[in-house]
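dumping this here so i dont lose it
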């Protein structure tokens, strides 16, 4: 196995992982969680 092949595989896996995270973050299923989390710094404690 050549080092350049290994570097290419790591780059391909990294790109696939990054793409998966972006798709997950922009999915409609996460809207509620992210809206709630964005308001946490402004939540007043009792």
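and the seq i came up w/
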């Amino acid at each position: 196995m050549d080092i350049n092949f290994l570097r290419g595989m790591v780059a391909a896996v990294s790109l696939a992982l990054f793409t998966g995270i972006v798709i997950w973050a922009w999915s409609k299923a996460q809207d509620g969680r992210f809206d709630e989390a964005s308001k946490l710094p402004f939540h007043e404690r009792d």
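The radius of gyration is 18 Å.
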